[in-house]
Amino acid sequence: MAEGKKTRTTVVIYGQQYTISGTETTEHMMQVATIVDEKMRQISSVNPNLHSDKLAVLTAVNAVHDYIKLQEQYDELEKEFKRLRD
Hints:
Blueprint: E1 7-13, E2 16-22, H1 26-46, H2 52-85
Antiparallel strand pairs: 1-2
InterPro entries: Bac_CellDiv_Activator, Cell_div_ZapA-like, Cell_div_ZapA-like_sf
Main location: cytoplasm
Keywords: Cell cycle, Cell division, Cytoplasm, Septation
């Protein structure tokens, strides 16, 4: 996708329709929406009485947790790579 060119994509997350825009491909934005929808449904299945705003916050907390864990793994792999290279 061209640098700076924004694409608008309509997605459905947890039964609500959203139009999102970004410089990524439509496929990428749809994949992100699908993952968010799946995570919201997973959390909701454990606690079906959660109001949607709390569900959204818990989904965000889970996503950031996953991101931090992946970043930590990446940093460890990078250190190991440098150690092996040197």
